[in-house]
Amino acid sequence: MPNHTTAPAYGNERLQQTTLWTALITPFLPDESIDFATLSQLAKEQDAAGNGILLLGSTGEALAMTQDEQQAIIRHVCDMSLSVPLMVGVGGFQLHQQLQWLDFLKNYPIDALLLPVPLYAKPGATSQQKWFSRLLDASKWPCMIYNVPSRTGVALDEQVLGLLADHPNAWAVKEASGSAENFSRYYHSAPSLKFFCGDDGLLVDFIAKGACGLVSVAANAWPEATARYVRQSLDLAGSSNQSEPSFKTLWQQAGNSLFCAANPIPVKALMKHQGRIASAELRPPLYSEELSELAPLLEADTAVNQWTASR
């Protein structure tokens, strides 16, 4: 069984203790403007559940927003003085813009950055190493390197990850390839880094291979239940009980339901049904008509609520 006890690499204790990060949605009003009142409400819910908040990831539709809108979200959430750590996404494929983004963020009390493989360009190993090295050098925060080939078009190179692990600002990895076998290869290529599962339904399998937590879409819809799911999964990994937990299938199905259409279409539809957001508005190129039915989401919601009530 992997050892999940890691000496803090940074003085930020709350960062080191966070095992669940919610990739927060960006709520929009029907006219597609940012709904800041609801954003505050959602951030407070995550704070109350003790979940770290990832702002401006792909779930937050960051690349569909203007730079001014992205900056406004950072200012707004940072002004809330939340007790949980904040991580901010660094996306796209234009290095100069990303370096400018890091320069902007230096003025705000954030705790970490999320650095995905550059999208669209499909860089190879040498290009990936140079890209990440430039961003790591420019960062003043711990960085989580993000592997999500389904979105970026190319996988993170394992040997590059091993080389980047020695950088003082390399802190963690979000692994979202969808394969426990792939996860294991990345984990063994950079064992000094902390590894987080990037697929809600695969958490139990990823923890068994070394993951220390989850970066979650599901926690938008179920903040407290997802936190419980992570705690129980980690507790099980640290126990002598090697049987599969009874909740594994439930969370696999719940996680799958949130990807029955492009993320974050399903989770916004569910949150509107829950009454937690007034509008499930999206930014192009995503449209709600892509979601053909609510039934899988409603079934998942019922199952998670029943599981939560059963404790």
Quick one: CATH superfamily? Aldolase class I
Mean pLDDT, all residues: 94
CATH topology, by name, is TIM Barrel
Low-confidence spans = 1-11
Oligomer: single chain
Q: In the residues, how many domains can be counted? A: 1
> Number of DSSP helices?
14
Structural class: alpha/beta
Compute the gyration radius: what is it? 18 Å
What's the CATH class label?
Alpha Beta
Counting DSSP E segments of at least 2 residues, the number of strands comes to 8
Strand order of the largest sheet: 1-2-3-4-5-6-7-8
Strand content: 5-15%
Order of helices and strands: HEHEHEHEHEHHEHEHEHHHHH
First-last Cα distance: 26 Å
CATH architecture field: Alpha-Beta Barrel
* Global outline: globular
Note the main sheet: 8 strands, parallel, barrel
Portion in helices? 40-55%
Main location: cytoplasm
Function: Catalyzes the condensation of (S)-aspartate-beta-semialdehyde [(S)-ASA] and pyruvate to 4-hydroxy-tetrahydrodipicolinate (HTPA).
Keywords: Amino-acid biosynthesis, Cytoplasm, Diaminopimelate biosynthesis, Lyase, Lysine biosynthesis, Schiff base
Subcellular location: Cytoplasm
